[in-house]
Amino acid sequence: MVTTSSSPLAPIPTSGATTEGSGAFQFPRLYSFPPFFNIQPVLSTRASQLASWSSLIQEYCRHHRIYTLTLVDALSTPLFNNSSLSRRLSLRDARAVIQWMTTTEGGNRAEWISAGNKKVKGEEGGEAGKCWIFWKKPEEWASALEEWVDRTGQKGVVLTLYEITESDATMKEEFYGMDPDLLSRSLSICVKRGKAQIFGGEGSEGVKFF
Amino acid sequence: MFLHQLDLTTALRPSLLPEETLLFVQDAVGLYEGKFKIPQYQNGQAYLTSHRVCYVDNNEPRKNSVAIYLKDVERPDFYAGFLKSSAKITLFPKPLKQLSHGTSIASNPPERASPQRSLAPSPAPAPAPSPSATWVCPICSFSNPVPSNFDPATANARTPLPPCLACGITPPLVHVVKAAITAMSNRQPHGGPPPDYATAATAGSSAQVGTTGQGNISCPRCTFQNHASLNVCEICGASLHTMTDKRLDMAKGIERSESPGPSLPPSPAQDRIFECVKLSFRGGGEKIFFERLKNALVQRKWLLQSAPPIPKPRPSSGAFDDGYSSTGNQTPDDPDRKRVVGIAGLERRGLEQRKNNEAVIGTAFEDLEALMTSAKEVIALAEQFASQTNLGPNGSSEANVIASQSASALGLVTTKDMLGSGSESLYVSELSRNLAEYLTDDTRGILRKEGGIMTLVDLWAVFNRSRGGVELVSPADFEKAAQMWDKLKLPIRLRRFKSGLLVVQGRDRTDEKTVASLLAWLRELHAPSSSSEYTWDVTVYGRGVTAQETAERFGWSVGVANEELEMAEESGALCREQGLDGLRFWENWIINDPAQP
């Protein structure tokens, strides 16, 4: 995926994994600053740089409705590769950024997915470096779902997971097209809070909010 | 007017007068006036130069430093020390009239106001060689008189020497110089007025008692007003100066009780009349000091300054002088010398000059003393040679220039034999001051040429080169000396970069200033001159610079540039970009993004 825009500040047309494609993503200006693609050795600068990267990744993923990133593949996407500047983040540096995002200092905005067992925190997300990007954390998703149910007066109604993420009714909601794994994770948080109940077996779960 | 204010160099050493050379340095020295310690002048370094004895205080060097001109010194006296009393050297001032004479060297001309000055006897005979001085002809051993106008201090190879009266052979210069010096030092004790007389004269002045406005001394017994230069009363024969001595003691006692210890702020210090000044050597070194002091007093280098330039004779055999201006006016002088023009003339001139050089070098190296007497010519010659060799294969490099200045720098350096008994720390601290002077010397501008900062290793190399191959400094001593800058509060500082690289820079150059100048430069690069080749917004971000560019821009060496950039990065002002074309440093927009509102 190669973009050919003349100015680094011009929006770069992208096609994310789960595209909604409403308008192009506006990169921050720092994105066109060459040293931004080098992880800085000096601590204070480094902290500031990592925070900038973190917010860039979150914004990018929110825009393109990306829930997981596979670093090996993502490195060639505009997110990590500024082709007009011919600068890209190296895999090592990208890992460092994500690693920082997984820490409390980085706001737990990412989580490695180990190759074998999903949802279990791996050290480095396997060789491919697969990870969750929480532009909304599961807790925040749970609140968003509760708020939606409350707003649309669907309390007590049994909803299928498909209904929540794919139906026309939720087209305008943020969780439209949400990753099923992330959805069930968010719903389980609702259950823990005592706001919902999950029925049914694997593949055909339903959920009731109250 | 015995103690003079002393000008110090940036390195807190006495700034030497022209022609003045440093002879000896000793630390842990205190000053006494008469029998009493002078407060605040109790721990310092004593510098013996060819013209002066200088005291530089360790704690308050700018305030409490004094110089004593050797020309004002009547005679030195040595006291070897006993039990807890340290060895001392006493300097007796010359009688007052003498003191106020010939102060062309002194920075402040003395005032001749106080009436008691007239107490002083007529000036001692000028230090011309006594007529009794003789030299013994090495050929026929006939005793010839040393010519009356012969001064060993100014004599050189060109001074005309009369041939032996008996055999007609011209003696070697050294021979006559030695003879004259011996004669002088023999004469020394008898030449001046008796020492106790000098003491009395000065003492009487501070006592004020018994002297009248006209400078007469009234006899304590019969009250007759005796002439100032008399020792005993003209009428009754009573001794006049035992009286003054006693009164002096009394007066002294009173003065002490009123103000314990004379405070010596610079201006009053010059008006004070000192009976004598003692240097107390608590750290040893007094013997060599005394030895060299005596030599300096005999040599009287200070006379050189006021002396008229030595007329340069032109012996008929070879042309002296530079040989360029001479052609015109030489013809009348030497009738036998034909006026030769053209290539033959040039060749002949060259030949004569070489002969002359040969003569100078020949006599100079005959003997160490002779070398000292003709040092000036030899240095001039060495410089001439140096400049000649530099003219050859592209001798334009700066190091060569510095090396060619080396001969003239000889007087500045501190060598190990100038210092007291094997005291390593004194050597190091003197070397340290020496280095600071060397670096801050504006005529050399070493530090300026290097962009205000240079590595210690480079400095070591340049410094040793400029010493001209003698008295080289070992790396260990050199580093120690550099470490001392901070302690001695000199205007130079040694800095250790993160990598361990040691650099030398002025004390006024702080990191903040360096960072500011780096940033100012980077901001200049925002100009959208050739922005087409850049893929980012040059007007916003400028561009990255390499250590190479920085070194060129600021005149630093690449190593230093690298360290300075990393220092600036460390401080958060810069950030780096490791690209294919090397490491580049940018303004740190990661922390202060200009695009952020």
From TrEMBL, chain A:
GO biological process: macroautophagy; protein transport to vacuole involved in ubiquitin-dependent protein catabolic process via the multivesicular body sorting pathway
Keyword annotations from UniProtKB, A to Z: Cytoplasm, Protein transport, Transport
Chief subcellular location: cytoplasm
Pfam family, one: ESCRT-II
GO MF annotation list: protein homodimerization activity; structural molecule activity
InterPro entries: ESCRT-II_cplx_Vps25-sub (IPR008570), ESCRT-II_cplx_Vps25-sub_N (IPR014041), WH-like_DNA-bd_sf (IPR036388), WH_DNA-bd_sf (IPR036390)
The keyword Protein transport is assigned to this record: yes
Localization terms from the record: Cytoplasm
Source species, domain of life: Eukaryota
GO cellular component, one term: ESCRT II complex
Region (Disordered): 1-20
Homology family: Belongs to the VPS25 family.
The name this protein goes by in its record: Vacuolar protein-sorting-associated protein 25
Species of provenance: Aaosphaeria arxii CBS 175.79
From TrEMBL, chain B:
Gene Ontology annotations of biological process type: protein transport to vacuole involved in ubiquitin-dependent protein catabolic process via the multivesicular body sorting pathway
Cellular compartment(s): Cytoplasm; Endosome
Pfam families given in the database record: EAP30 (PF04157), Vps36-NZF-N (PF16988), Vps36_ESCRT-II (PF11605)
UniProt keyword terms in alphabetical order: Coiled coil, Cytoplasm, Endosome, Metal-binding, Protein transport, Transport, Zinc, Zinc-finger
Main location: cytoplasm
Molecular function per GO: phosphatidylinositol-3-phosphate binding; ubiquitin binding; zinc ion binding
A Gene Ontology term for the protein's cellular component: ESCRT II complex
Domain GLUE N-terminal: 6-309
Sequence segments annotated as region (Disordered): 100-127, 185-208, 307-338
Family: Belongs to the VPS36 family.
Function: Component of the ESCRT-II complex (endosomal sorting complex required for transport II), which is required for multivesicular body (MVB) formation and sorting of endosomal cargo proteins into MVBs.
Subunit and interaction comment: Component of the endosomal sorting complex required for transport II (ESCRT-II).
Protein name: Vacuolar protein-sorting-associated protein 36
Protein's organism: Aaosphaeria arxii CBS 175.79
